[in-house]
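Q: I'm building a small set of examples for a reading group on sequence design. Run inverse folding on the following structure and report the sequence directly after it, with nothing in between.
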């Protein structure tokens, strides 16, 4: 279940603790209350199997690193139980001057420590902390969290099924600093898992769920052998506890036989992403294997068509018998908002088509009732489900003939710039006359308490539109003036008027709906409210032109216009499931194309179209990559290619491993791309050495996801590494990402250091 709380109680408790406003005891008290409420809620909704250890203060993979004692030396851990200070240092980094100890007191921390690398959990919008290993990596049980939370639930009267990240998935999602193959560490890791399983069993747990979503990836023989070794070890060393092996986010496909050969008591499969696998799974499963059918989509928010689902699932239940079938969400409900009943301002029709986590558990209860007692026992619920599905399919709010006609008129030349980059680059360099290693930021500046307060007051109606705009203009002017003072070469307006880089645009486009409480966790305390893309998309009017025009009027330096790209808007929304995603993306691309054209007409010479989420939409199976990349790149080019050669198109991407899609990145043909590279110490640029990327690139030198301020020397060293992989004329200097979530106290010294680092590189380049 989602762990953030219906009112984001976890976020508030974490940020209060991090800021020193509350202590560890208060944080842990809030966490315990959220766990208790989740268990009670599931029981009241009729769930017969309730998970424990699905809660985390930051991330379940980080929890696993702590459980097995995989703590890199930089964090100063010397064994024993992992403290909260170590845990949060791994998640967020530690300050260069102080670091909170386990009691919440500040102590000298020398140079501090950077946070562990963070990347996306498979193809979701959730981030996990990447485990780091080295040769001879020791493992030891260093956090008893799975056991403690099982016992906590038991004390409250809930018999739960503890959830663990599987050992093979854990190793495959890790990285090595010295070339060790993570899978080679499996034999050292397994005893810790065995210890956990035995202790859970001794305390009364009869089942444990072990998540191995790596089984839906392209696995080699070594990975399959590792799975076999791991689960044979568990069956032999901890036979007293049954294992539900959970897979999700795709089909088992060629890994099905390997999964079914493992000595486990149950297997969970994702029937939302891969409904086609049901027949094979049922046909091949051993007679005594419990099958958990992930029938309800755990990653999207659409109400299920329950009669249609029953048509699919009933034959499987009849074949195996009800005692060997469980009905579940396709994956963790972490990826869904908590409770639709909190939404009292949604369009009534749209709301009737939706189901959040609470409602999805209710749908499971209806399915279970139909499967155990017959459809007649839940006739009213099934009729309501079918009626909602039919209403959505025929609604004029979903379908727009004008949008369909425009899509049909798209021609290939609309996705082509007039001339190649080599021609454009000369025109742009003469137009802008920027110094070597030009400095800029990604777009947003800190959304301070004052900004959030003013936005909330405007939303409540206690601050009128004129006063709100005056406030935003003042914030923008201050940001522009400060950027000029510190010497940034290309400026941004700060985006103080924007609530979110996707929501801001979705609110101005047709076909989107928005929630008030539909929060989901992105990482740690970072929560987002994805827009709901329910219908055909168009742009009724200009969205950003006037704010860009005002910001440019404040300076003689280039002012980037800032847009979010169509692929990112798509991937960071809950997307309609009644047409191909590519079709929805093309609709968004045409809407953004209109905005780009209007910005250029208004005088914008640099337009940044962020595609932060392009790679995270990449299918998990390599065979499906080309189809996705073809339409994703086409959509970016469709929105960006209608400008003159002298207009410079920028884009930005977050936390992307580029090696395997670098040709597609090049095919986007943006004049300048900025990417996250600081946490990986420029390792992501390795892709740009084997593939000679022709355009310009800004490798991030400042990790904005940590409050830690990097020194001039650190940034200079990163730029030096970038220059080893790229030509000087290609290199821009920028942070990893936007600065919205940081404070000005973090941002000011970091950007001043960044400008100094760029100037140092100019001097170094001039001497060579």
């Amino acid at each position: 279940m989602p762990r953030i709380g219906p009112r984001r109680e976890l976020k508030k408790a974490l940020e209060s603790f991090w800021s020193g406003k509350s202590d560890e005891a208060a944080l842990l008290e809030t966490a315990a209350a959220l766990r208790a409420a989740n268990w009670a809620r599931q029981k009241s909704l009729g769930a017969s199997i309730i998970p424990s250890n699905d809660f985390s203060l930051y991330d379940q993979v980080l929890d696993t690193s702590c459980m097995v004692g995989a703590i890199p030396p930089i964090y100063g851990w010397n064994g024993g139980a992992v403290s909260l200070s170590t845990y949060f240092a791994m998640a967020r980094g530690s300050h260069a001057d102080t670091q909170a100890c386990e009691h919440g007191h500040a102590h000298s921390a020398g140079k501090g420590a950077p946070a562990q690398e963070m990347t996306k959990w498979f193809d979701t919008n959730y981030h996990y902390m990447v485990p780091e290993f080295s040769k001879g990596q020791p493992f030891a049980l260093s956090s008893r969290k799975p056991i403690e939370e099982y016992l906590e639930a038991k004390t409250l009267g809930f018999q739960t099924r503890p959830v663990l990240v599987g050992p093979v998935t854990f190793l495959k999602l890790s990285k090595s600093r010295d070339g060790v193959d993570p899978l080679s560490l499996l034999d050292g890791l397994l005893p810790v898992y065995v210890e956990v399983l035995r202790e859970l069993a001794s305390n009364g747990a009869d089942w444990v769920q072990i998540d191995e979503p790596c089984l839906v990836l392209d696995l080699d023989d070594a990975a399959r052998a590792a799975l076999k070794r791991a689960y044979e070890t568990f069956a032999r060393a901890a036979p007293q506890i049954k294992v539900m092996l959970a897979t999700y986010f795709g089909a088992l496909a060629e890994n099905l036989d390997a999964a079914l050969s493992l000595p486990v008591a149950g297997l969970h499969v994702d029937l939302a992403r891969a409904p086609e696998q049901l027949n094979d799974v049922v046909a091949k499963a051993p007679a005594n294997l419990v099958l958990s059918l992930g029938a309800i989509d755990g990653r999207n928010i659409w109400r299920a068509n329950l009669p249609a689902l029953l048509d699919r699932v009933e034959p499987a239940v009849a074949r195996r018998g009800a005692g060997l079938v469980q009905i579940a969400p396709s994956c963790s409900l972490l990826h869904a908002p908590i409770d639709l009943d909190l939404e009292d301002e949604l369009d009534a029709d749209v709301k009737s088509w939706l189901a959040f986590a609470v409602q999805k558990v209710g749908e499971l209860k209806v399915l279970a009732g139909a499967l155990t007692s017959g459809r007649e026992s839940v006739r009213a619920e099934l009729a309501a489900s079918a009626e909602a599905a039919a209403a959505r399919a025929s609604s004029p709010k979903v379908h727009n003939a004008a949008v369909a006609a425009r899509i049909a008129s798209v021609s290939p030349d609309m996705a082509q710039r007039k001339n190649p980059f080599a021609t454009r680059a000369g025109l742009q360099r003469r137009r802008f006359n920027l110094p070597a290693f030009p400095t800029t930021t990604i777009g947003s500046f800190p959304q301070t308490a004052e900004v959030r307060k003013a936005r909330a007051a405007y939303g409540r109606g206690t601050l009128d539109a004129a006063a709100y705009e005056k406030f935003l203009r003042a914030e923008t002017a201050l940001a522009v003036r400060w950027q000029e003072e510190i010497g940034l070469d290309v400026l941004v307006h700060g985006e103080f008027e924007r609530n979110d880089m996707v929501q801001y645009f979705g609110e101005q486009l047709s076909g989107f709906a928005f929630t008030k409480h539909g929060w989901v966790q992105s990482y740690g305390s970072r929560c987002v409210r994805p827009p709901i893309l329910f219908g055909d998309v168009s742009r009724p009017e200009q969205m950003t032109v006037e704010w860009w025009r005002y910001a440019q009027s404040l300076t003689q330096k280039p002012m980037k216009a800032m847009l979010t790209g169509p692929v990112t808007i798509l991937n960071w929304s809950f997307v309609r499931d009644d047409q191909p995603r590519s079709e929805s993306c093309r609709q968004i691309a045409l809407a953004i194309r209109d905005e780009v054209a209007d910005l250029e007409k208004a005088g914008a010479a640099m337009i940044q179209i962020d595609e932060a989420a392009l790679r995270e939409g990449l299918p998990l199976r390599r065979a499906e990559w080309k189809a996705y990349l073809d339409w994703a790149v086409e959509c970016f080019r469709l929105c960006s290619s209608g400008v003159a050669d002298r207009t410079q198109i920028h884009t930005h991407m977050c936390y992307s491993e580029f090696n395997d899609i670098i040709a597609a990145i090049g095919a986007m043909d943006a004049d300048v791309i900025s990417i996250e590279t600081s946490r990986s110490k420029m390792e992501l640029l390795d892709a740009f050495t084997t593939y000679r990327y022709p355009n310009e690139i800004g490798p991030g030198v400042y990790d904005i996801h940590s409050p830690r301020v990097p020194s001039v020397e650190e940034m200079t060293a990163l730029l030096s590494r970038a220059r080893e992989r790229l030509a000087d004329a290609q290199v821009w200097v920028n942070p990893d990402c936007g600065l919205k979530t940081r404070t000005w106290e973090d941002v000011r010294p970091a950007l001043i250091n960044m400008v100094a680092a760029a100037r140092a590189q100019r001097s170094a380049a001039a001497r060579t």
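Residues 571 and 617 are 6 Å apart (CA to CA).
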